[in-house]
Amino acid sequence: YLKSAPGKGIWFSNHGHLRLEAFTDADWAGLRDDRRSTSGYCTFLRGNLVTWRSKKQTVVARSNVEDEYRAMTQGVCELLWIKLLLKDLVVIHERSMRLYCDNKTAINIAHNPIQHDRTKHIEIDWHFIKEKLDQKLICTPFVSSENQLADVLTKELSCKQFNCIVCKMGKQNIYA
């Protein structure tokens, strides 16, 4: 893709805010040979794409929620790393970081300790995310699947969907 599009680049612009946000997603049992999932996240600072990653999960997820929750954990870790990097650069970021997810059940589990009994297989991840929510370091708004930018890292997309998402990520023709 990159070889065939040498004029494409990521455009950084001033959006007038210091928001730090991440989009996380996973494709449950997407790999046919071992049924492992692929997790992905992309992070934005001031509305500009700064990091992204796609990774095969190390274990087979027993449910879509477990899969999404692992992706959320990776997204939180990345947000915390960027926040520490900003602190080293003497840029203070005091607002809650937004962690967008398109799975309402995963978001509800993060907020609802009652459901914790049904999620013992992701207990450490649950405690980690719950702690960050309680500290108000993160918030977990729902994003519809149509607006889930991390899909480009985890799923096969049509050409139209792919181009729409990478455009939202800031990809532009640098010669235009």
Automatic annotation (TrEMBL):
Protein name per its UniProtKB record: Copia protein
Originating organism: Cephalotus follicularis
